[in-house]
Amino acid sequence: MHSSPVLVCSILAFFVGFSHQSKDSDAPTELEATVPEGKRLKLYVENIIYPVMRWRLNGSPVSEKCEITNTASSSILICPDMDRVDEGLYEFQGIREDGQNETLLVVDVRVAQCAEEPAAKSLADNFLEASSEIDVDECFCSGITEQCWKAENLFRSRIAINVTEADTIDLKISQEGVQEAKYENSDEGIWTYYALPDVMTGNLLKSYGGYLEFSTNDDDSFEDIPDVILKGRFQDLVYHSSHEPLSKEHSTSRIHMTEHNWRQLNGSFVSKQLFMVVLSKVKSFYIKCSQFRRLDPLLVILDTAGLENLGLGPVKTVEECNCRTGYSGLSCESCSRGYYRRQAVGIQGICVSIKEKWESMKATLGWRHGLDQLRNMV
After folding, report:
1. What Rg do the C-alpha atoms of the chain give, in angstroms?
2. What is the pLDDT of residues 166-177, one digit of tens each?
3. Residue 118: how many other CB atoms lie within 10 Å
4. Is the pLDDT of residue 159 over 60?
5. pTM for the structure as a whole
6. If residue 77 lies in a helix (H) or strand (E), which one and from where to where?
7. Where are the domains of the chain?
8. Which residues pair with 238 in a beta bridge?
């Protein structure tokens, strides 16, 4: 039996219930749910019997902050203090005696800011609401803390490369993701991009609020494909140029590196949290390749920030956070020395003390076996 989700600001808990019944289709029950930020998520299934029962978030174990209670015929998941990093697909799986797993329930959970009077919005209202989010000064801090301020004594610098010297790559682009088209027999849905070098990947958080500039050749192609693609660990973001192709002469595009100018592959707006998660570890950076290749340099320039004053002015768009023990970096995006990142928890993972883990494993497994396990983790 499904409960009817209602979004109100005063609720103390939100829950979705599911009663398993025999059915002709093996497809899981799929639901959508919206939880106010900071509130509690509660999901449960009942009338089920499996030797092993488990919950997954986007295919991985749920956050350690969530509590799971299993009985002989039911399972309850409770996640307090929901945040944007807790969004995603929550799945309940039953493991049969033969080891096969069955997914019975899938809930697409979104976390929304609390509104006093929820009401239906027009498309124009949604656009204005999304546009105003850029002015909201919220901490990212890798989800570790809410205490942040504008970093001081940082100065603008630039990363510049000649894109004509970069590798080109064929990409297959869909709403499901951006993949390298290595073994495709058809050219349908496949386009060629410049793959920018490693200097423009990795941690790009210091580029937030700066600009990306690149020379382009308008090629008379009206294909609605992204001009730029940022590929993160769990999410791909795209930028579409607003200008129409005018000629084959090269021009310059200038993109403000904030969430307001980027979209998800399905066209949805991008929150600051999501944009910063992607910037914290960019796996690949692509720029559309024109069919009219030029011999003269086509430069790509990305703003960043550093301690050296190169005469380009100060930077006031990079955050600095009051990180907890075990975390380092301006946005707490790195683990301190003596800590390792456990990726099974949330999108960013958590930093765990190697010493404390070692002591725990020694007490549980014995020191030799514990040492072998720890070597495999680090």
Report:
1. 24
2. 888 899 888 888
3. 14
4. yes
5. 0.57
6. strand 74-79
7. 14-112, 140-319, 337-377
8. 229, 263
